[in-house]
Amino acid sequence: MRLMYGILITFIFLKAPSAFSAAPSCRFVLEAQDNSTFVQKLIGYKVAKDHEVFRQGGTPSTKTLSLTSVKVVVWNAYKGKKNSFEQDLKSLGSNADLLLIQEAFDHPETSPGLKFPFENFSDHEWVMAVSFTDRANSATGVATASRVAGYPPKFIQSDVREPISQTPKMALLTEYPIENSESSLLVVNIHCINFVQTSDFASQLTQVEKAIQSHQGPLLLAGDFNTWNGSRQTLLEELALRLNLIEIAVDDDHRFLVLDRTFIRGINVREARIDNSIKGSDHKPIILELDIVP
């Protein structure tokens, strides 16, 4: 259903802009790039300001990241809309050293400060980069959990906004010390802009590249890249080449569209697979076991 909706929105906005040129109210919605747009007011969305982006919680269980057998999960959680989401999240996160979630959510009316749905992870610290909130102050964005105490996180809010909702997409940068090493692992958890032109997709990738290109140590770039056509995939591959990143090939991959991807540098792969047993989202999680080469 989301794919069909996306195709329809993409066609309307990218292929038939003249259909809107005669409607001043629609032009206003499309051209506005601030929090006061008509549609945002109508549906109650509010884009997070810089001081509102981070929501954090939890307690890490260790100070440094192991060099071997680092277990990673990358998953678009579909905002927890599926019935088995909470159970699946608990199962996936119980053994994970790093858990990268796109379409993460925080519902403060049920439990403030990321207690829900992350309350099951008593030995992880969590940080969420909020894209926007709704009228109930429920937040949507990307979130990363780690058993390791990280350095202060950073975020990248896309300059480009999704049509209709006028909301940005987020990238969350977290960095972790590595045992017996002066290097650190940079983890980039990203959700790429979706229903926009290819040039706008490229713009977000450029933002990310500028933010991470100076990092000299091991790097993990992963998330939902929304690479639903060849042009987007080519742009992502070119970015990986410039940053000396290698995409991880995964086993048991039966996906119709490959939107979720992982790229590495200074890391060796022990295991990489899709967990097709998970039903708690419209995306299947990527399961990794990695060795770090600092």
Description of the structure:
It is a single chain. With 294 residues, this protein is of the alpha+beta class. The chain has one domain (47-292): Deoxyribonuclease I, Chain A (4-Layer Sandwich), CATH 3.60.10. It contains 8 helices and 14 strands. Strands 1, 2, 3, 4, 5, 6, 13 and 14 form an 8-stranded mixed β-sheet that branches. A 6-stranded mixed β-sheet has the order 7-8-9-10-12-11, covered by helices on one side. Helix 5 links the parallel strand 3 (70-76) and strand 4. Helix 7 (198-212) packs parallel to helix 8. The longest helix has 15 residues, at 198-212. It is globular.
Helix/strand-derived category reads alpha+beta
Are there runs of 5+ residues with pLDDT below 50, and where? 7-36, 111-115
Strand percent estimate: 25-35%
Number of domains: 1
SS summary, helix count: 8
Secondary structure tally: strands: 14
Give the overall pLDDT as a whole number: 86
**Percent helix:** 10-25%
Based on the structure given, which CATH architecture is correct?
4-Layer Sandwich
Query: Quick one: overall form?
Result: globular
Largest sheet, strands/sense/barrel:
8 strands, mixed
CATH domain topology:
Deoxyribonuclease I, Chain A
- Computed Rg: 19 Å
Which H/E pattern describes the elements?
Answer: HHHHEEEHEHEEEEEHEHEEEE
